[in-house]
Amino acid sequence: MSHELRTPLNAILGFSQLISLEAQDNAEISDFSQEIERAGNHLLSLVNDLIDLSRIESGKLDLSMEPITLSSLGLDSIALINPLAEKHHIHLHNQLTHHDDIVILADPLRLKQVIINLLSNGIKYNKTNGSVTLSRTLTEHHVRILVKDTGIGISTEKQSRIFNAFDRLGAECGTIEGSGIGLVITKRLIEAMGGGIGFESTEHHGSTFWLEFPIHAYCITQNTAQKTLADKTEITQTTTHLPVVLCIEDNPVNLKFIKALFAKRDGIVLLEALTGEMGLTLAKSQHPDLILTDIHLPDSYGYQILAQLKADPNTKNIPVIALTADAMNEDIVRAREAGFTGYITKPIDIYAFFDLIDHYLVEQHS
Ligand code: ADP
């Protein structure tokens, strides 16, 4: 189906470009062929959107869910959308920074498609010299990615129609190009990735569209670590230069305490996973130098995580330390027999904690 729809368009677009080239000396013909090209391109993007929508609606969407840092998402999206912003004289602000980075689980290409769509709407439906800001807010377990513009806004009466396919809320009478299905695709994609979408808008003053995802991990870089995080491949890059510790822990107070402990150490990258599943995903993709895991996790048991890490040739040599409130002697013996490299009991003794961490990180890096 997609082939049948695209093939004639390829011919229209290809030959109209050839005519433009041939007709360089004939202003009128050149102008006509450029009109064909413009309309053809518009039709092509409409066809692509429709194919995308029908694939989503028929459940044929293949998503490849991976850990994504918000800072790399921000850098990539802003770089892609910058030419459009310049063309419309709109200022772009990216507040998704490296510091206290958040990791979510989503399909990287599809999430970028969604952010680009929201950013491009923010630019298209703006005013000259307006601005679009990409930022985030946090609640305990969720992150919201916000795209805020200072544009024309959406009147209260029209707001309920915003996610209706082909409804352009009156924009079809103006000069702004569009098809009225970008937001429908965006909503379907976000929901398929386990997220949510919403917006707030005031007519003549601007709109804020937001996407909400569960937080799967934090990527905290301290001091020296931040300097090496200058480009978009931060996790991959830091893992090659700096010791990386993955901590799998679901309790927010314990997390806060561990983050505070690592804040006292320069040059260690701390990845935090809130579930066993996310811990395993991060262990496989980021290959940390050391793993700390809680024993009682909501979706898993520390011993199961250890067994899965040991069963994978890529992760079997990573030292794994158990973090647990089970402090009986037989618990410790059992952990050692299972293959945990170390055992830290809660409440954590700070000195013993750093002795153990430093011991394994030095060993790995020497
Ligand atoms: P389109 O291709 O028309 O931009 P969308 O599905 O992305 O389609 O958006 C649907 C309609 O919602 C748009 O036609 C426009 O009227 C309105 N809209 C979307 N985003 C914004 C925004 N940031 N500010 C004002 N109006 C918007």
Please report the number of helical segments: 12
Q: What is the CATH topology classification name of the largest domain?
A: Heat Shock Protein 90
Low-confidence stretches: 221-240
H/E element sequence: HHEHEEHEEHEEEHHEHEHEHEHEH
How do the strands and helices of this protein lay out in sequence?
Layout: H1 2-22, H2 27-57, E1 66-69, H3 70-88, E2 91-94, E3 101-106, H4 108-124, E4 131-138, E5 142-149, H5 182-192, E6 196-202, E7 206-214, E8 217-221, H6 224-227, H7 234-241, E9 244-248, H8 252-262, E10 269-273, H9 276-286, E11 290-294, H10 302-311, E12 320-324, H11 329-338, E13 342-345, H12 350-365
Parallel strand pairs: 2-4, 9-10, 9-11, 11-12, 12-13
Antiparallel strand pairs: 1-3, 3-8, 4-5, 5-7, 6-7, 8-10
Helix pairs in contact: 1-2, 2-5, 3-4, 4-5, 9-10
Adenosine-5'-diphosphate (ADP) binds at residues 121-122, 125, 149, 151-154, 162, 168-169, 171, 178-183, 207.
Q: Could you give a short description of this structure?
A:
The protein has helices spanning 2-22, 27-57, 70-88, 108-124, 182-192, 224-227, 234-241, 252-262, 276-286, 302-311, 329-338, 350-365, and strands at residues 66-69, 91-94, 101-106, 131-138, 142-149, 196-202, 206-214, 217-221, 244-248, 269-273, 290-294, 320-324, 342-345. By secondary structure, the chain is of the alpha/beta class. The strands form two sheets. The chain has an eight-stranded mixed sheet, with helices on both faces. A five-stranded mixed sheet has the order 2-4-5-7-6.
